[in-house]
Amino acid sequence: MLTEKILKRPIVSFIILSNIIFWPLFSLVGAAKLLGFPSIVFDIMLCISSWSSTFAFAILFKRIYKGQNFVKYVKDKFKDKIKPSIIISAVIIEVMIFIGLIFIVKAKSNEGCSIFSVTSFGMFVYLFFKNLLAGPTGEELGWRGFALNELQKKYSPLKSALILGLWWGLWHIPIMLTVGLTGINLIKYIACFMTSIISLSIIMTVFYNLNKNLLVTIIIHQLSNFLIGIINVKLTDIIMYYALLYFSAAVILIAVKHKRVFKEEYFGRYF
């Protein structure tokens, strides 16, 4: 019986397959919107498309880690004891970014206009769990649980975060092309989106390296997606503010934590 060969470039294969799966799935999301399907159908399909990186990793798993068990691998990514100080620190950063965003939006919005898009507690809860079941739980196993770990076997944590952030951002291209922007506005949106997501990748790398449990990055991802989703502001403006705030947070973390979590020697202790 023929056995599958071990992949020579697993990260490249993972990124390519993630896109191959994501594009058609996201096309179905767009089709559901155009055909006027109920919003719950649209949301379910959007959540499914968000899991494309996990689907890709699961498909490639046996060719990346020959002889290993996928379920055990997943469990291992959550086995390390959660450090409350790390979670609290990560949440504080997300909350501070959110507060900074509110101050900026409030200063630039017309008096009397609500800056929040959520008008009821039920909708608040619905959006929270819709976001949780999409990117945070659907993406993190592939991007951080696999790709980040593999990159850090070869590169420093900072370089790994930058590489991963770039490809993670480009994976979102189908979403960028459906926001209804064209010309210079679309270029500005893409530039700000890439800045914010690469900065977020750096922040996630810091906290993931401090506490090797994938729940850490899921929490950060959830707060990032959910909090921006409840702000009622022009898309190009909010992504620009977010890019500025996340970039600032990433620069501060690099400056403060450089010796501890961004040097190659530090992460080398995990392998």
From TrEMBL:
InterPro entries: MmRce1-like, Rce1/LyrA-like_dom. The chain crosses the membrane at residues 12-34, 40-61, 82-103, 115-134, 161-180, 186-207, 214-233, 239-256. Residues 124-227 form the CAAX prenyl protease 2/Lysostaphin resistance protein A-like domain. Signal peptide: none annotated. Keywords: Membrane, Transmembrane, Transmembrane helix. Pfam families: Rce1-like (PF02517). It comes from the Bacteria. This is Type II CAAX prenyl endopeptidase Rce1 family protein. The lineage of its organism: Bacteria, Bacillati, Bacillota, Clostridia, Eubacteriales.
